[in-house]
Fold:
Amino acid sequence: MTQASIITIGDELLIGQVVDTNSAWMAQELNKAGIRVTRRVAVGDVWEEIWQALDEEQKHADILLITGGLGPTSDDITKPLLCKYFNGKLVVDEEARKNVLDIFTRLNRPLIERNLLQAEVPDNCTVIQNTRGTAPGMWFEKEGKVFVSMPGVPHEMKGMMESHVIPALQQKFHFPFIVHRTLLTAGVGESFLAERIRDFESALPPEVKLAYLPNYGMVRLRLSASGREKETIEKKVADLFETLQGLVREYLVTNEDEPLEKVVGKLLLGKGKTMCTAESCTGGYIAHLLTSIPGSSAFYDGSVVSYSYQAKEDLLQVEHSVLESKGAVSEEVVIQMAKGALKNIGSDYVIAISGIMGPEGGMPDKPVGTVWVAVGDENSLVTKKFSFRFDRMRNIQLTAVNALNTLRVFIRSEGQ
Amino acid sequence: MTQASIITIGDELLIGQVVDTNSAWMAQELNKAGIRVTRRVAVGDVWEEIWQALDEEQKHADILLITGGLGPTSDDITKPLLCKYFNGKLVVDEEARKNVLDIFTRLNRPLIERNLLQAEVPDNCTVIQNTRGTAPGMWFEKEGKVFVSMPGVPHEMKGMMESHVIPALQQKFHFPFIVHRTLLTAGVGESFLAERIRDFESALPPEVKLAYLPNYGMVRLRLSASGREKETIEKKVADLFETLQGLVREYLVTNEDEPLEKVVGKLLLGKGKTMCTAESCTGGYIAHLLTSIPGSSAFYDGSVVSYSYQAKEDLLQVEHSVLESKGAVSEEVVIQMAKGALKNIGSDYVIAISGIMGPEGGMPDKPVGTVWVAVGDENSLVTKKFSFRFDRMRNIQLTAVNALNTLRVFIRSEGQ
Structure:
């Protein structure tokens, strides 16, 4: 199987100033296309280290995809380095030059000499035009190996990958088919699942791999296989996936590779219903998860993020006396928040949340991580108390996932 | 300077199912401690590939930090591999065993044999106890090099790094001091900045590095240096940083390494004022950014995420006739949203947003990416129209950053 390495270049990756989301996206797309990524390497903006990475990664892979270090400033050295690495010389690419000029005209920004340098490329590469920025991509070949250099700006790199790099790789190499099938479980640990499906796992044919991917108290199971014959491999994985689903049926959230918020969205769309949220401690994170889904306006009406007492009282009609007597983090308050949101936003279902995410704000009887959740509809509300004990961000994420799952279970159990 | 490589293990990283946030966090912490991370490598759950990575990375680095592949399931092979790599044999660690038992007792989950295997460790490593999970960490030494293996679960790894690994590395090695100073600019491009500070940049002493980190239309500039004498190096960078700030003063957002939402939060805290948001197309993302900051309840009151017409009308008193005649994405509507939020939430400042984030929902006169923003207080509102042309998520992020920056400028310009 054709193997690829991803090399990302930039000091910001090595001092942790930037989380590398490019590599994950690239790996996903390459994988879908039948290219196995075996290594991902990040190096700094240092001549010898980039050079060494190029030398080493071509021992591991047939395709080297390189991002970063193509900016117009002097800390960006990828282009001159590649030029030297492949013994080329820099020449102006007319189409790239026109692109730079067009972009500056459109943005109405003054063009300086430095910007035009972006249009220079080594004369021995195939230029990949950048429709979303000024730095062109470069495709080199050497001893049967392909080296592709792209900008580190995510949407520029994505544009090049989709419109040029992946189609060109598919044309050049003969890739096998890769099939992944993923399901998501909730309410059960990794070890317990492993025990449950032990016989299934040990009987798997060698070309099929099973992976456990735990996250936020949920566990994803993934079957993967690759082969030359699309139908054979798809059929084999589909049959095994069917068996696997049967083995974990009572914990199954979805048999697609999709996030929980999308599962909830699809459930609502299927019923022609909508939902809303009333969020205190999650501060709009659930609203953000739901509205990240394209088309979410069809099932999501909105949220009241009621951080202050006044917002809870004025926008959700939580009673002042209840806030005073029970505290904002209480079952009574989340019930009133849920009712207020249902009434004011006019949705079919609601999630209401109040809690203490930390690091400050804990009390002896309500330590950091205490969360009350109410989910339901106008006829019925279910409340739950959770106790998380992590950092602020993880507490927010865990609360969101658990609240969404509680609503999912509520909707699924209706009429049963 | 002591060099480190980070090796992350897991197929999920190579098919892009998981974004590697661990490496960024680790790099940040190591950097603060004076350890230079020169490479980050990700490999799959494949025996030969992990083995090879261990062989290769020790050529580059003195310290190898390894995460992942320590779960209780059979796709996790890091522990047996390390055991073999260092010629050890697996033995039960009593403290780790007690930890596993404690965790299962506390969670009230049935314990199975497989879970107890987590307490086995190679007999030639120093065990790093895991206070947040079942898999212990392992510290090996060989020919002056240190190899540390930790779980891939972020909060378990972070716990080990903070309480054990970094202090132990500091004790073993003699690290130099690393100083970074970062500032954030808005409203100006990377090339323009580079031109502006060209003389400054070319006159920098060789031990000081300047980096340009563009993101969301803003550019971060970072000066870095390392040295043996803390005070000398701090003074040198501080002086240069002072000069740099002077050169970009009119574009300066902050001279700290902090996100824009924190800059806005500090500005509000300094004035003893609060803000709220009324978000349509950003769907709670601004609320989420602001409430991710610990202590944000002191300056942030809440948000109305008004995705539907009804939410806009009922919670923000946007007039139905205006929604009908002007459309939800219009200057008139964001003005009414802003006024409604100020009144109902009772804050000093407001950001209101309505737009079309895509991929669907564009209209001939309002294409995808059209956004109206209103910011201000009860006396004065500023409106702005933006046109972004990226994917949904990036449009949401760009809208949030630009809206926050517009409010920042509004607050800063008061009384001038």
